[in-house]
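From the shared-data thread, chain only:
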Amino acid sequence: MRRELRGARILLTGASSGIGRCLAEQMAQAGARLVLAARSAEALHKLAQSLTAHGAEAVAVPGDVTNEADRQHMLSAAVERFGGLDVLLNNAGVGSWCHFAESSEESLRRIMEVNFFAPAELIRLAIPVLRNGRSPAIVNVASMCGRRGIPAWSEYSASKFALCGLTEALRGEMVRFGIDVLLILPGVTQSGFWQHLLRNSGRYPLNISKGMPPEKVAAGIVRALRKNRTETILGWDARWVLRINRFLPRLVDALLARQVRRLYATA
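Structure, as tokens:
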């Protein structure tokens, strides 16, 4: 199957910056009609205006995905502006680079709200609309941390594991509605994500400068949507870690533990 994006009605969360902004630009170039959602109203409106000026159909719907009324507003905008929805792309997310012992319940709950409960409830809300769409699909942007927990990303990993589990379960359930369910697992990416961390005190090293540019991640997501790929791993680091973890999980455990012991040797 090859999904045609020209004319496709797409609701994209986390659209104002980083991967989301690049996704909006690339899907607009492909001829998709976009409902752009994010909390940053000013940046979102500027993006929508820029895309519209270049001939795209795009509407900005500022809102918080963790808010029930805002989620309803996002979906209603797709129905009112474009007459329905073909693709729900859950891209919004938040992280915390902090070891679990130094974090808090408040941080964990916020991460779970944004990364798991919000996309889950947006999916639930969108199903009746998507089932009437053209080649309908749900695309969940998770992380390689959703397949392999990483030190200092314990809370983030938990939220993404939950999203991966939901995605797999829904893949079977959505068959009766004709809705495809796709999962994206990016590795480290150079994006604004790192400037909005809830906490930034982890010692485990992350070489962000060697991460993928957001344009490359967005291109991979667009390609996966077009080709209807069930699960897509993006980035050499994600492919390397997940491949080794698949066959030698105890080795990965040992390597990660050794690194943490070294980092905390003087603590």
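The domain at 9-263 is CATH 3.40.50.720 (Rossmann fold).
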